[in-house]
Amino acid sequence: MKLYMIYPAKADGVSVTFEAIYCSSDARAKRRASAILGEHDSATKVSVWQGGRLVASRGRRSAGERPSAAL
Question: Is the pTM above the cut of 0.85?
Fold first, then answer.
């Protein structure tokens, strides 16, 4: 299991929180990141990091989007 850091960010790029999770794969971490983006109404994007490696980053497609699919 690898440690991933997930950062939901506001429109100005500031992330006021993060979630540290252990996952068996990048795909699982990306699915969790999509769920986190859906849980944070003020977030406009989410980034997933594993150590110094950017795994994925994506923004909302629309203001009211509640993502359920993977990044």
Answer: no
